Structure formats: C-alpha cells, structure tokens
Amino acid sequence: MPTTLVIDRARAEDVAAIVALLADDVLGARREDPDDHASYLAAFEAIDADPRHVLAVARRDGRVVATLQLTILPGLSHRGATRAQVEGVRVHADERGSGVGSEMMAWAEAEARGRGAKVLQLTSDSTRGDAHRFYAGLGYAASHVGFKKRLA
C-alpha cells in the first residue's frame, strides 16, 4: 500500500534529487548537468528568496518523487488579473501513473488560488505527447502557441 504523499516547499538538500528528476528524460538528459551543484544551488537560492516563486516537491517516505515550480505573475491584462505559471513539472519514473502528477497539479492550483491567481498557465515541449494528454485530462486547454528564444 502506497504511503502518504507530502507536498511542500523544497529545501536546499532537495536540489540534487530535483536535478535528477529534471535530467531523467530525453530532453533533460541533453540540457541538465547533475554534477554542476553550484549553479543549481544558486538558482535554488534565488527562487527560494523570492516570495513570488515556490519550488515544490512531493515526498513519499521522505524521498523526493516529484517537483514543480510555481510563479505568481501580476499583470494588467484581463482587468489586472494575477496569473500563475507552472514550470519544471517532473515525476519520478517509479511514480508515473500513480496519481502523483495530478496531486501536484491540484496542489499548484490551490496554491495559485490562495495567492489570488485567476489563471494557471503552463508550457510543455511540443514533443511531450504524454504530458499534453495528461494536462488535457486535468482540464487544461492548448489555447495558445508558445514561443521561446534562447538568449544565452
């Protein structure tokens, strides 16, 4: 029987496990470097210091099994509506299909609502068909086309 999942704010000691999750797929394996602890810890400190960001983890028996980052975005459009952005959603391979991703997204929605957000948005790489089906199943609409440009 699976033990209870606990979702909370990530701690510095979680960074290595989070990076391992980010690197554990075809896309992440090409862009992440789990041996580069300094850059990830610096990024963690910047995220953790900013109250508009939450780097969250899901733990089962103390082990990090999923992660996501939630960012609160104030804006003028939509009558000054606050939005929330979800990034970096990852679930450990052993936990995929167990409902952890759904629980993480429900947590993000509740957290975003609690911070006054009217919309929760996310992007997903165009090659991630399984992720697209997952988000659609949770009620997210592929309503926009996203663009990205590498600056460095």
Automatic annotation (TrEMBL):
Entries under SUPFAM superfamilies matching the protein: Acyl-CoA N-acyltransferases (Nat)
GO molecular function: acyltransferase activity
EC number of this enzyme: 2.3.1.-
Protein name as annotated: GNAT family N-acetyltransferase
Chain ranges of the N-acetyltransferase domain: 5-152
Gene3D superfamilies on file: 3.40.630.30
UniProtKB keywords: Acyltransferase, Transferase
Entry's transmembrane regions: none
CDD domains reported in the protein's UniProt record: NAT_SF
Organism the protein comes from: Nocardiopsis tropica
